[in-house]
Design brief:
Blueprint lengths: L1 H30 L4 H10 L2 H16 L6 H37 L7 E5 L1 H18 L2 H4 L4 H16 L5 E5 H4 L1 H39 L2 H40 L4 H38 L7
Antiparallel strand pairs: 1-2
Length: 308
């Protein structure tokens, strides 16, 4: 009986270790990439105005008719920078709305994807920034001789040229995304549903494995010792591995983002994003490690019961 019992316990121990490893990954996904609150918090840490200015500022200034000359291009670039800086809270708020709406769709809480964002505040802020930028662009000696009405007219013309490029609303819907994107999103939804099922199933499966180990041992001392050792075998390398990545490999990531020529705001944001993604796994590994230590202590202090 000892061999079948030992074989069964060894198999259960291996399955428990593998289940912990998979559950750590699933838990990390659920608390980070598949969690809209996490994604919104990461967006709030990002310097949106600087990033948008670096990626799109020059392109936008060239799309405006008044931005085709060097002087007009410089003016448009200044207007765009000022507008993006003023609109950063609004941009983050709208991105948060898009994220929550998108995750409701991906997580199966909504069966359709339909979101309309008004650009009224964008246009209003844009209009407020054109006139001050125009005044700053005019030499002081010329500014004094210009009638205010001329400046207002020029400001209105620039605004009309600029606002004509901006739609009244930004519609995010299945029709706008197209069938290919929607097909990809449907596949993502399917994978996400598998992850949600795996999360709950793994919890039940690990509890079942622990129950079987206890049932076979029928002793607190031997049961807690085996479970504690299994927890330690997962917890120690798991915690040390994440600790190493967060404290040593992160420097390489920072260097890599610099070599890729990414904007400074992204270079500062990406390492923090990776750090925050790894934190749930680190905390889970630490919790399992502590649990393993506690179980081992219990196995050593608990008196052996009579064998059945």
């Amino acid at each position: 009986m000892k061999f079948p019992k030992g074989l069964a316990l060894g198999l259960l121990g291996i399955l428990l270790f593998l289940s912990l490893a998979v559950f750590g990954l699933v838990l990390t996904l659920n608390q980070t990439i598949l969690n809209p609150d996490f994604m919104v918090s990461q967006i709030n840490k990002l310097d949106i105005s600087s990033l948008a200015g670096e990626f799109f500022g020059e392109f936008l200034s060239e799309q405006i008719p008044g931005g085709q000359t060097p002087e007009g291009k410089a003016l448009m670039a200044e207007v765009i920078d000022d507008t993006l800086a003023d609109l950063e809270p609004w941009i983050k708020d709208q991105m948060g709305t898009v994220i929550y709406s998108g995750y409701n769709y991906l997580l199966g809480e909504s069966q359709s994807l339909n979101l309309v964002i008004s650009t009224d505040q964008l246009k209003e802020t844009l209009k407020d920034n054109i006139k001050p930028a125009l005044i700053r662009a005019i030499p002081i000696d010329e500014l004094a001789s210009l009638p205010p009405a001329m400046i207002d007219t020029a400001s209105d013309e620039y605004y009309q040229e600029f606002s004509a490029q901006i739609p009244s609303t930004i519609d995010i819907s299945e029709e706008m995304l197209g069938p290919e994107v929607i097909s990809t999103l449907e596949q993502v939804r399917e994978y996400v549903s598998y992850i949600q099922i795996a999360y709950k199933a793994l919890i039940g499966f690990m509890l079942l494995l622990i129950g079987l180990i206890v049932l076979i041992h029928r002793q607190v001392r031997d049961s807690t010792r085996q479970i504690g050792i299994t927890f330690l075998v997962y917890g120690i390398p798991g915690y040390v591995g994440v600790f190493f990545i967060k404290n040593f490999a992160m420097g390489y990531l920072t260097q890599l983002t610099g070599q890729l020529g990414l904007p400074a705001s992204l270079q500062a944001w990406l390492p923090q994003l990776v750090n925050d993604i790894l934190t749930p796994m680190q905390m889970f590994s630490l919790g399992i490690l502590i649990g393993g230590v506690v179980l081992l202590v219990v196995s050593f202090v608990h008196k052996r019961e009579p064998a059945y």
